[in-house]
Structure formats: C-alpha cells, structure tokens
Amino acid sequence: MHCEYEIVVISYNLPMFNLKRHFLLDPSVVFLNHGSFGATPKPVFREYQRWQRELENQPVEFLGRRHNDLMRSSREALAIYLGTSAENLIYAQNVTIALNIVARSLELSAGDEVLSTDHEYGALDRTWRFLSKERGFTYINQPVGLTSHEAFIESFWQGVTSKTRVIFLSHITSPTATIFPVEKIIQRARERGIITIIDGAHVAGQIPLHLDFLGADFYGGNLHKWLCAPKGAGFLYARPEVQHLLKPLVVSWGYESETPSGSTFIDHHEWWGTRDVAAFLTVPMAIRFQQEQDWAEVRSACHKLGVETWHRIHQLTGIAPLHSDPETWFGQMNVSLLPADTDIALLKRRLYDEFKVEIPLIEWNERKLIRLSVQGYNSRRDMDILLKALEALLVRDRKLI
Questions:
Q1: Which end of the chain is more exposed for a tag (fewer CB within 10 A), N or C?
Q2: pTM exceeds cut of 0.90
Q3: How far apart are the C-alpha atoms of 52 and 400, rounded to whole Å?
C-alpha cells in the first residue's frame, strides 16, 4: 500500500483494569463499539431489574404515588453529577427525543436560519431538515476546520448571519468522534442573542461536564452510552431563563397538573403516561459504579490506548489522518481514515464474521472512516486483534480496496 503519511507509533505504559468481568458482553466478541449503544455493568443491570420488579410488585403504588418522589431523587443525583440543579433537568429516553422537544418547540419560520456543522448525527440532521421543510426556515451544515480549536471556531462562525436564530452543535460528534470546543461558540452566541442547542449524546461518562458553567441554553445527553446506564436513559437540560420556550412533545397529565412539582418544565415534560421508568431510576447506581471504579483513571487509560491504536491504524494505511492531533480532539472514541475505495460494508461484515470484531465503519463527506471506542473492558489484546484483522483484509486481501 502506498504510504502517503509517515507517523510515529507511540507506546504508552498503560495501567490495566480488570473490568471485563463486570460486563454482560459476549466474551467471544472483540467489542469496540461502545459508542453506538453502550454496555451496562452487571451491578447496574441488577439494579435496573430490581426497579422493574418493584414496579410490577405494586404498579399503582409505584406509578400513582411514588413516581414523582423517585424521579426527583434520581434527578438530584444526576444534577450533582452534571453540575446543575435538578430543576433544570428532565429525563428522556434518549437524546433524539430530548432535542426533538426543543427543536419542535422553537418558533422558527421563513427567513430564520439554524446553523450547524457537517459532522452532525443523522437522526438530528433529519429532525432539523424535516422541520425546515414544514416551517420554511433554513438549516445549514457549515464545514469546519480541524487543524486547531481556533480554526474550528472561526470557520464555524463564518456561517453566522443576521438571520441566525439557533446554533445546533454536537459536543462530541457521532460520525467523526470529534470533541468540539463548544464553550467559545456558546459564549459568542449568547452575546449575539442566538439560542444554543448542544447534542451531548457521547459526553456524560466520557469527558467531565458542568452544565451551568458551560452555559448552553439547551443540552441533551444520553446516559446509556458512556455512563453505562441501562438503555432508555437520557436527559434534557434547559437554563431556567429559556424553559418557558419549551412545549410538551407529549401532552399528558403533567400538563395542568393538579399536583404540581413546582416546576412547569418538569410537570410538562416528565410524565408521559404509563411507561417503564426503571432506567431513569438506575442512573444513580451507574454514577456510583463508575465512582467506585475510579473512572477518571479508567477514562485516561482508555484514551491513551485509543490514541495508540489510532497511530497504529494510520501507520498501517499510510493515509494522512482527518485530525491534526488526537490528544486535542478525541476522548475514548476516535476515527481513522481508510482507503477511499474501501468497500466498507464488506469490510465491516468480514471483520465480524471472520475475526469477531464489532466496530462501526462510516461513510462521511465521501470519506471512509473506522470509529474506535475504547471502554474499561477493552485491552491492548483487543487492539492487536483489530490491527491484525485490518492488515489481513486491507493489505493482504485486495478485494476490499
């Protein structure tokens, strides 16, 4: 393979964590796709099932009399973790639902612009395009520079006009795993009176987050990914000053509530009728599990192993990377470029069928990417298997390129 890029492989002296035993994952699979749906540790999953059993033991008592207090207690634990107040949070099943609440609430019309980037998650891109067709506003995916944070900020801000009403950004992007420096954009937007909406699907549990300090108007996040809570746990944050802008996505008994919580934001958006709230109530246990495992150290080790593997993949392919510095742009998840003529559907299938490697391959802006997630249950052995598989399929087996 022609080498277009020379890179030095850095070998880190990594601490070893024996966390695989805590997870329910199939041991025969090299699981390098935590970023898609997450994985829940055994003690957290047991707590989830405990809440489900408690609900079924006396459904009327649980949903009719205990629900509000249980949800409040869980939100309080989450609020401490996220650096805000429980009154600024509601639980949602995932970030797509959370941000649909926001997007569908804002009164946008012809002549207005929503500015985003060309790195956004497909479901939310579709949400904004759907609403733009219905209401007549313009949704813009601005290309951005990745040579430095300053290049990102300036290239993105070039898309701001007098018509920009909303800025919508991922904090960590899904297709390119990039940590955007959203703080400066939020600050500039506030000065211009532009509403900021942040997609934090990959943030909680992967990088530290302090929502009040960050200052976004609205911030949606998933908890089932990097926090390792059960599937169906996400949240929506809204600054107190903008909570009145939100309309219920589902109108139910919380609207015109006879037993108000003291927060219209919570009353209007937390009760969706009969549903399983066990995932929400398990979030405090997910937080506690990571604290007990010294997760700051786990995250650091995963990042180092991921960066080392990023270097190794680019050494193998000889292709110049998309990002100038993995230390700056990546957390526990990163992307590497593959040869332009790679059949990524075939490569993905053969990685799994022949090597039992579960990892996403993505086509983004006419580029072929492999996205690596490194979680506490992964090891250098997993990375070695990935590299051997890529060498076998990309270098020795020319059918894929």
A1: N
A2: yes
A3: 46
